[in-house]
TrEMBL record:
One of its GO terms (cellular component) is cytoplasm. One of its GO terms (biological process) is response to stress. The lineage of its organism: Bacteria, Pseudomonadati, Pseudomonadota, Gammaproteobacteria, Pseudomonadales. It comes from the Bacteria. InterPro entries: HTH_MarR-typ, MarR/SlyA-like, Transc_reg_Sar_Rot_HTH, WH-like_DNA-bd_sf, WH_DNA-bd_sf. GO terms for molecular function: DNA binding; DNA-binding transcription factor activity. It is found in: Cytoplasm. Keywords: Cytoplasm, DNA-binding, Transcription, Transcription regulation. Its main location: cytoplasm. It comes from Pseudomonas saudiphocaensis. SUPFAM superfamilies: Winged helix' DNA-binding domain (SSF46785). It holds the Pfam family Staph_reg_Sar_Rot. This is MarR family transcriptional regulator. Residues 13-149 form the HTH marR-type domain.
Amino acid sequence: MTKPRSCPALQLDNQLCFALHSTSLLMTRVYKPMLQEIGLTYPQYLAMLVLWEGDGITVSEISARLLTDPGSVTPLLKRLETEGLITRTRRSDDERVVELRLTDRGRALQAKAECFPTNILSASHQTPEQIAALKDQIVALREALQKLV
């Protein structure tokens, strides 16, 4: 049996998608112990980041910010509500719209998470300028890809 001819363009280590995917997995692992200390999962942390930016947003708004559909973010939000970090209330003028508000406990959690960016920067062994440039490149890539889907 002959070995298939290797095509460099199809080698795993040459794939941008794999570099992004594997880095994302590792980033989540680096966050995990910090998040365990404050009782959040990584997806819950992302939702809390959005709420810390602006309290009183809707499920649709947080879903758009997280680039996900409302149906998949709802269970995560219900869990945050069960944990006493947010409240979910339907608008009286339109019951289809659910507003999200931080509780005092949810607001207090922000102070515990304020060291996370510094910890991640330290773990990356990059300068703030390198991280900012990388983030800008990734965001530009994301925006280009969003136009295709």
